[in-house]
Amino acid sequence: MSLDVPTELLERAEQGDVADAEFVACVRDSLPYAWQVIGGVVADLHGDTAGFADNVTPPPSEIERGQLLRALASDAIRGGLERHFGVKLAFQNCHRVAAFRPSAVDSDDYRAFISPRGQLLNQTPELRDC
Fold first, then answer.
1. How far is Cα 107 from Cα 5, in angstroms, rounded to an integer?
2. Which of 12, 16, 19, 34 could cross-link to 71 by cystine, CB 3.0-4.6 Å?
3. Contacting residues for 110 by C-beta, under 8 A, at least 6 apart
4. Contact at 8 Å (CB) between 82 and 51?
């Protein structure tokens, strides 16, 4: 299960759409490590003039790794995080997540990060089973 959905939020979802803020709060509460990592790269991005910032630190355990994978593998969760933080997220391996300024999505840096070459260059033997 990806998210711990409060009963009240589930009931509202059964009745119709829920507000993005409620969904993002559920993500934040359910996946705190993923929230921390993504919030960190967004803060790094806003503190710099570069077009993107990324995290290269592997998660401390499989629990945290699972949170990051669940957050970034779900279109709904990733989209909610992107709208909340005002960024475009990109993901490699089991831990390397980057936040790009929306204006940088058509940049050389973005294209390099999401390219097959970028993926191959980010491989190491210790990450093979991540």
1. 37
2. 34
3. 51, 52, 88, 90, 100, 104
4. no
The per-residue pLDDT for range 53-72, each reduced to its tens digit, is 999 888 999 999 999 999 99
pLDDT in tens, 82-103: 999 999 999 887 678 999 999 8
Chain segment 111-120, per-residue pLDDT in tens = 888 877 777 7
- Single-letter amino acid code for the residue at 127: L
**The pLDDT of residue 21:** 96
Tokens 């945290």 locate to 64
Task: Check if the beta carbon of residue 87 is closer than 8 Å to that of residue 99.
Answer: yes
CA dihedral 68, 78, 4, 96 (to 10 degrees): 0
- Amino acid identity for residue 72 in this structure: L
- Structure tokens, 68: 């990051």
Give 8's contacts (C-beta < 8 A, 6+ positions apart): none
Contacts of 115 (CB under 8 A, 6+ apart): none
